[in-house]
Amino acid sequence: MSISNEDVVKLIQEAFPDAEVSVEGDGYKYEASVVSSAFDGLNTLKRHQAVYAALDSAITSGDLHALTIHAKTPDEV
Is 0.90 topped by the overall pTM? Predict the structure, then answer.
């Protein structure tokens, strides 16, 4: 099974309501760009952990296999 790009976006936006999110994927590998003020003061690892936490259900179910994350604050864009 796999998850749609739109479903990945929805899960991230539920965790980060203010986020600008874009996701590209082919049903196996995905790349997510997330811009949110929630990342203020967080290092790269903490930002990635927060995004992974938002996608935990898709990861544990096996629907989401591989993800590259680009997480930035609005000031970093």
Answer: yes
